């Protein structure tokens, strides 16, 4: 007599309210990390998210896990903006513009420095998120160059450095005081990327690998 092999059990899907709570925690953490830095008390994040402390720790066992989730979610939303722009318009330079302005709105310049200062920057989730950003940005820039829209002497590293610098408030000013001007200055930078180039840039196009070695 053969014994029937039990069918494998499916892992239960998270409840909708549990997913909403997780999203609220990540959103609140992103806001407070930008305002106060990565050492903001988790209790304060729980209060802003409108959940209990236990809910925060149930989703994120420690601060590193929460910071990593915030950074990865920001990177993924930025990637989605570039992909959506390509799908909607097919205009590579417009996709590049949307990527840059979304990066500023997502506070990448404030969040990304946390990666090297608070936890393992080589964590697989973080590396995968960075690779997605670099891949879509390289694709967008290659398409714009092929279409004659983007000057040929700039690289992904050039763009990332400029976005980080231009969306960061000047020293001595409050975090949000420069917000009204960020998109104006980013657009000035983007206009300078258009082909044909009006000047020759010193040095060579900067890659992400160049930045990692610097």
UniProtKB/TrEMBL annotation:
Tell me where in this chain the HTH tetR-type domain is found.
Answer: 19-78
Pfam families linked:
TetR_C_43, TetR_N
Q: Which InterPro entries match?
A: Homeodomain-like_sf, HTH-type_TetR-like_transc_reg, HTH_TetR, Tet_transcr_reg_TetR-rel_C_sf, TetR_SbtR-like_C
Q: Gene3D superfamilies per the record?
A: Tetracycline Repressor, domain 2 (1.10.357.10)
Q: Does the keyword Disulfide bond apply?
A: no
- Protein name, per record: TetR-family transcriptional regulator
Q: Which residue numbers delimit the DNA-binding region?
A: 41-60
Task: List UniProt keywords, sorted A-Z.
Answer: DNA-binding, Transcription, Transcription regulation
Record SUPFAM superfamilies: Homeodomain-like, Tetracyclin repressor-like, C-terminal domain
GO MF terms here are: DNA-binding transcription factor activity; transcription cis-regulatory region binding
